[in-house]
């Protein structure tokens, strides 16, 4: 019997104070920051450490949390994911994921998303997961399509990034659709 937080390639775990340096390195890559959300102001070492310390003791409220993504083979921190926009009444939630550039195209993101969806659908009884993906981010769009997400809409010129407006593509998958594709073995 294993942990539901361990997949084929990654382990989802809480953020630890000692993770601060790796997260600071991720934050120094503006393209990765932009793909995940938006470019943030630089943080000092002290502020990065404080952020990690606060995240390490933050209690999840309303099923909103952030987790570190760790590669199983190397026990290396490769990224993070978080839930947001949770609605128990409507049975849906949103999430975001970011993987450090050095760890792209290794299957870490898809493994992490599958673990998250198994938890949110199978343990928390949510009905639908949603993700907003910038229209230029073909890798993320392909990932979500591969996992079974459907494009549900496109908000044109919705976000301002890198000197221009970009579309936000709304992707969604239901618990039933997920179960049909990702039966736990």
TrEMBL record:
UniProt domain N-acetyltransferase: residue ranges: 10-176
Domain of life from the UniProt record: Bacteria
TM spans (from-to): none
Pfam families (alphabetical): Acetyltransf_3
Gene3D superfamilies per UniProt: 3.40.630.30
InterPro entries per the UniProt record, alphabetical: Acyl_CoA_acyltransferase, GNAT_dom, Ribosomal_N-acetyltransferase
PANTHER family according to UniProt: RIBOSOMAL-PROTEIN-SERINE ACETYLTRANSFERASE
UniProt protein name: GNAT family N-acetyltransferase
Originating species: Kribbella sancticallisti
Taxon lineage: Bacteria, Bacillati, Actinomycetota, Actinomycetes, Propionibacteriales
